[in-house]
Each structure stands twice: as C-alpha cells, then as structure tokens.
Amino acid sequence: MKNKILFISSLVLIFVINIFTNSLDPYFYTILIYIGINIILASSLNLINGYTGQFSLGHAGFMAIGGYLSIAVTTYFAPFFINTFGTGVFGESVSFVIVLLLGGIAAAIAGIIVGVPSLRLKGDYLAITTLGFAEIIRVIIQSLEVIGASQGFRGAYIFENGVKAAQIPADLSNVPFIFYSVPKYTNFFWTFTFVAVIIYFISNLMSSTYGRGFLAVKDDEVAAESMGVNTTKFKVIAFVSGAFFAGIAGALYGHFNLYLNPEDFNFLKSVEIVVMVILGGMGSMIGVIIAAILLTILPEFLRGVSEYRMIIYALLLIIMMLLRPQGLFGIKLKPRKQT
Amino acid sequence: MNLLEIKDCTMRFGGLTCVDKLNAFVGENELVGMIGPNGAGKTTVFNIITGVYNPTEGDVSFIGTSVIPFKPYQVAALGISRTFQNIRLFSGMSVRDNIRVSFVKNLRTGYFKSILQFNSYISEEKEIDKRTDELLEIFGLLDAGEEFARSLPYGEQRKVEIVRALATSPKLLLLDEPAAGMNPTEKVELMNLIKMVKDKFNISILLIEHDMKVVMGVCERILVLDYGKKIAEGKPEEIKNDPKVIEAYLGETH
Description:
The structure holds two protein chains of two kinds.
Chain A: H1 2-20, H2 26-51, H3 59-76, H4 78-85, H5 89-118, H6 124-143, E1 155-159, E2 164-165, E3 177-181, H7 188-206, H8 209-219, H9 221-226, H10 231-257, H11 267-280, H12 285-301, H13 309-323
Antiparallel strand pairs in A: 1-2, 1-3
Helix pairs in contact in A: 1-7, 2-7, 2-10, 2-11, 2-12, 3-5, 3-6, 3-10, 4-5, 5-10, 8-10, 11-12
Chain B: E1 4-13, E2 16-26, E3 31-35, H1 42-49, E4 57-62, E5 65-66, H2 72-78, E6 80-82, H3 95-101, H4 111-115, H5 119-138, H6 154-166, E7 172-176, H7 184-201, E8 204-208, H8 212-218, E9 221-226, E10 229-234, H9 236-240, H10 243-250
Parallel strand pairs in B: 3-8, 3-9, 6-7, 7-8
Antiparallel strand pairs in B: 1-2, 1-4, 4-5, 9-10
C-alpha cells in the first residue's frame, strides 16, 4: 500500500516536473536522462547481483540487445508505425512504448537463453560466463551489416525497390530512398516514468514470496532448496527480470542518443553498472539509486581536471570500498550475541 | 503402510561406503532416533532422504512414492522437511521472513499477479502472515519476529529452524542434531518442544542426536548406525543394554 502511494505520487511529480524540463539547458537535460537510464540499469542488476546473489557481469549485453532491437524496429518499420499510429504525440507514444517493450522482451529472451544453462554455475564461473555472453553479443552486433556493424547504427535506408539497409549498398546508389533516422522519443517524462514503474515493480517483487525466495537463495542455497524453493527457477526469474529491465534501459538510451555503436556496450559498461550496485550496497534499493545518480554526475564534475579524471574516479571508489565495504546503504549484520 | 521406507540403501563415495544396505522405516506419528558414532553415516541418510544425494543402490519411498528421482525442493513439496547440523538460517533476513520463505511450496499467485499486487496476491500474503504469527506464537518467538535471525541466541536459532521446517507443513520432520551446542536447561526445553511438535502437528520425526539423555528421553524407537550399517534397533531400554551398541561407542575392551 505504501509502495502504491509512493508510486502514484512520483508519477504525478514526474508529470509536473516534465513541464519545466523544456527550458532546461541541454547539457543538464542529457545528464538527467542518463541518470534515469543508469538508475534502471543499476536497480535491475541489483535484482540479480544484490538480492539474489548471482554475480552477473553481462548487463551491458542485455542493454545492447534491447537498444539495438528497439531502434532497428523503430527505423526499419517506420512506415508501418507512421501509417498505423500516425505522427501525433499519441501515435508516437504508442509506437515508443511498443518498441521499448519489444527491446525488453528481446533482452529477456536472451536472458532465458543465457540464464537457464549458466545459472547452475556459481560465483566466479557465472561472472565469467555472463561476461563472455556480453562480449559475444557485442561481436555479433559488430558483424551484423543490417544494424550498421562496427560503424554503428543511425537509421534505416528504405529504397523504392523495397530494399532496406543500414548503409547505402554500392549497387543501389542510383535508386531513390527515404532515410529514417532514429526519432528522439526518449524524454524526461518517458525515462522517469519507466524509472518509477520499474522501481515499483522491483519493490513489489521483493516484498512477495518471490523476493523472499531470491533473498533465501542468496543467503543459503542448500537451506532454500530444502524449504521447497526451486533455486534454479528463482535464479532464472531474477535474471530474466533484470535482463528485461536492462533491455528497456537500452531502448531508452538508443532513442535518446539516436546512434548506437557496439563499443558503447563493451566490458567497461558492464563494470560501470556493477560498480553502481556495489557502491550503493548490494541489495539496497535506495543505496543503488543514489550510487547511480552519484556515478553519473561525478565524472561531469571532474571534467575540469580532465586528464586526472579517471584517476580521481578510481581513487574515490577505492577509498569508498575501504571505508564502507558494505556500500553506501548496505546493511552490516550485527555480530551474533553471545549466549 | 509406513510413512518412510528405506530399502537396501547403499551410498558409496568412490571407494568409501558411507551407508551400507540400510533398511529402516518411520511409521505414522512416530518419533524415531538415529544414533551412532561420528562418521557413521547418519547425516548422509538424511541427505539421501531429502534428495541431496542419490543412493548408489536401493530405494527410499515416502507414502509409497520413491523420492530418488526428486530434487530437494520437490521432496520438500512431498512433505519431508529438515533442519541442519550447523544452523542454516537465512542470516540476512528477519525471523519472520525466514519462516515466510517456507510457504513458497503452496504458492498460488503467479509472478505477474505478485508484481501488480492483485487482490489474490494480497489475500495470500495475509494468509501467510497469519500462519507465520500462529507458528511464532506457539513457539514463543512472537517478540523476536522482526530481529535478524542471526542475532538471536543459539538455542532460539535452533527453534527458528524447527519452526521454518514446520512452516512447509511436512508429514515427516528430520532433525539433525537439534541439541548440539545447547546447555542442559535448553536441552530439557528442547525435549519438551520436540514432544509437543509431534503431538500438536501430528507428524513423524526422525532425529539424529549425540546426546543420549535427549535421545533416550524422547524417542520411541532408536536405530543405531556404525560404519553405515544398522547394528541395532529397538526401544530405548533395549538399546541401552545392547552389547553391540556399547562396543560401537566405547570399543571392545572398555
């Protein structure tokens, strides 16, 4: 009930703030959107790494799948969307929500494919498998001509003879075409509405029997199994939910940047998200949200000392881990009382 | 028909035979003790019953169904629940949540209904809360409900583990050394608790214990294991005077 009130009031707040964001400086606006996207990424990874205790290092892979699939659908099927839903605000919103969900679903399907075999592994092995998966995704994207391969994807050329491509093929250089670039659908309203919805869903999930199952799996798999928790199933559920939300984050990112490059989703992106989760405190929703905000803003503050930026960033992380190893808002268990 | 039937069960790990052609049973509403020196294979028997290990040979059946093909969570769903030798509570969760985990077995509401908080989800949560409260009250743990399981005193943690096992509404409860690490007063409390659990919940209990006072005090029948073999079985008084049992525990020339 408390969640529901918080959720509805935050939606109202987002709607109100949205009116003022048009006058915002584009630089701050961009940072604001990235904060939203990073909150979604961090809290969805928190579901896997923090609550369920499965160390995944492949979140950028799911983000890439969601991002690429959604902008590919928006551009390649642009005539379809325009004909069906029109170009008004309403039509664009409907098209956008559809491609966002498609991005999420594609990432979730990838989550099932990766999760079902690899979640039988534990600890380091799972981390390596998921890391390998994310790299495979990146390499596949790099070699897929239809989404721009290593040059990145900006939009689709639809030729009059029906051919569709991401670049102009040499033999069609004389055929007329229409270029559909990625439309800038992502704005403050949509980003933060999805942030609110996703956080609401995750907190509902965590207060349900599923959430307690996740926590039980993290604390003691053997005991959880003996109490009737199908640990593999629960791990897959957490993993696929996390992948779904990451896919949506990727789709939001794609429709904001209007250009995706496979290098956006390299190993460092995955690590960045893991750092947010660890810094915020594994399994603490508020901590992870605050860490996502801080780690998005911090590099911007350090722009003034550009050449030392990454050194200071790294140092801050090290100091943080030394002083608060449990993360900003992580719970430190009380030591056992002596009897 | 017996509730639990173990037939010619053998468990080998490489060259080591941990359980050797064991035959045993637990009847309806019966309290059976399993004793034996260290390394006799008692916990291995528990692990076979609960599906952690698949026996090399033989069969274990529970109310007529073989448990061998089942995984531990499926065995739990059949109605066998257990506690552990070293306490295995979910240390990051409150006592109440530890117990609420056990209701997953009867979970009716699906994933999407839980996320969207349908009415069926809310009513199911209420029911789980109510049953958790009932269990906590029976065991006098109502005040400790919101505390971290790990912050409770040792004896209480043992109790929480038993409550958590009972929350899966089992027909057979396996207790692995419930008195380990307890002081004499706590042991007496535990004995009363075990008897109460058996009568109140009308279940069977199979109990591993080293403390003879506890075993002799509560068990109706005792199995004695040594090197994986059953060397004796009978009422507590019979076991106490069995020369084989005395030999297994104290050696030949005592």
